[in-house]
Specification:
Blueprint lengths: L20 H21 L5 H12 L3 E2 H8 L3 H13 L3 E5 L7 E5 L1 H10 L2 H8 L5 H21 L1
Antiparallel strand pairs: 1-3, 2-3
Helix pairs in contact: 1-6
């Protein structure tokens, strides 16, 4: 088994807010969510609802726990979100016949149709990131995924 690399050493430990990786990630996430909020308003979705819909557009008929694993969310967070999507007519929730503790989430006809309207969202986000090429954005995404996996492994 490969030994984890030693953490990078800072020339001098600091508690300045702008020197913190967590704040750079947090503030970037807030800015990105603001861009998404504007684009998703046209679809009547919040950002977390959009994430759930993307999971379902990739693979319809999944359990709440499968959605939670994919999005790193617990069922207490997902349940009210899924109820709102159901009330909007985008999904249906049914108990699994084999195990009544499991709830199956399935796209409705309207939920499937919404995918066509959502096709432009990724492009809209890319346009909001001025000065970054597709290649640069792909590299940033890859680095963030690597960081996430490292934090999951070591956290």
């Amino acid at each position: 088994m490969k030994k984890p690399a030693a953490p990078a050493k800072s020339p001098q430990p600091t508690l300045l807010l702008d020197d913190q990786l967590c704040f750079a990630l947090y503030s970037t996430s807030l800015a990105l969510n603001k861009v998404y909020r504007k684009l998703l308003a046209k679809l009547g979705l919040t950002y977390p609802q959009y994430l759930v819909m993307m999971v379902l557009w990739e693979r319809d008929e999944v359990t709440v726990s499968e959605i939670g694993e994919r999005l790193f969310l617990d069922s207490a967070t997902l349940t009210p979100l899924l109820k709102r999507l159901e009330a909007a007519g985008l999904v249906t929730r049914t108990r699994a016949a084999s195990d009544e503790r499991q709830v199956i989430i399935e796209l409705s006809k309207s939920g499937r149709a919404l995918k066509t309207k959502a096709q432009g969202i990724p492009h809209g986000v890319s346009c909001a990131v001025e000065g970054c090429s597709y290649e640069q954005l792909a590299l940033i995404k890859q680095q963030l995924e690597s960081l996430r996996e490292s934090l999951i492994r070591n956290g």
